[in-house]
Design brief:
It is a single chain. The model has no long low-confidence stretch (mean pLDDT 93). The longest helix has 15 residues. This protein has 226 residues and is α/β, with parallel strands linked by helices. The protein is globular, with a radius of gyration of 19 Å. The strands form two sheets. It has a five-stranded parallel beta sheet with strand order 2-3-1-4-8, sandwiched between helices. Strands 6-5-7 form a three-stranded antiparallel beta sheet. Helix content is 46%, strand content 15%. The protein binds zinc ion (ZN). Zinc ion binds next to loops.
Length: 226
């Protein structure tokens, strides 16, 4: 039995679930772009366009970019020739109102004609304590930037980088217990309601996000059908 490959996707999951990594792998396998809203907005802000100026002001003040602006940028992105084969949205929608706006945009006659309707929402499920351990154990070589993890990927020799033998390491400032807990709380309150939302629409596909990267991507491969 052959299944049609799913090419219009949303990656959903808490911070530290590995959805960015999985979006990148999927993007390479399917030959379609992983679209991160954060980088789209930064890109637009630096473009010098009228909308970009508005976005820059909001970001500089630490304000959220309104859904209407975000959806408009996403629409322009999904209409680009290189994204007509499909897309993987990473980091959006972030809330139910955003998902509704996205649905409305994708349901427009133009988008329907281009076959850009959503095929599935891949939800990477990971328990909170797993996320916390994954994030706060991360560190990186100060010289060559190779990523390590205290438990999952330590250096072969303690205190020495495997790649360049440097002895100094750095951690991301926001990889602390407090920040991770607050980001998780944010996810539960604002983003997690998307799970029942997409379930109702028959689009939700749950993936166990614990375990090694290749094990998780194999589970995703089966769902997506490539
Ligand atoms: Zn190094």
């Amino acid at each position: 039995m052959s299944q049609e490959v799913l090419r219009h996707l949303v990656m959903l999951g808490p911070p530290g679930s590995g959805k960015g990594t999985q979006a990148t792998i999927l993007s390479e396998k399917l030959g379609i772009n992983a679209i991160s809203t954060g980088s789209l907005l930064r890109h637009e802000a630096e473009s010098g366009s009228k909308e970009g100026e508005k976005i820059k002001k909001l970001i500089d003040k630490g304000n959220l970019v309104p859904d209407t602006i975000m959806i408009n940028i996403m629409k322009q992105t999904l209409l680009k020739p290189e994204n007509l084969k499909g897309y993987i949205l990473d980091g959006s929608p972030r809330s139910v109102p955003q998902a509704k706006a996205l649905d409305k945009m994708l349901a427009s006659r133009q988008m329907k004609k281009l076959g850009q309707a959503l095929d599935a929402v891949l939800y990477l499920q990971v328990p909170d304590d797993y996320v916390i351990e994954r994030i706060i154990g991360r560190f990186q070589c100060a010289n060559c930037k190779t990523l390590y993890h205290e438990r999952f990927k330590p250096t072969k020799v303690f205190g020495i980088c495997d790649v360049c033998e440097h002895k100094e390491f750095i951690r991301r400032e926001d990889d602390t217990y407090e920040t991770v807990v607050s980001r998780l709380r944010n996810f539960r309150e604002i983003t997690a309601p998307l799970v029942p939302y997409y379930e109702k629409r028959g689009l939700l596909r749950c993936v166990d996000g614990t375990g090694p990267i290749d094990v998780v991507s194999e589970k995703i491969r089966k769902i997506v059908g490539y």
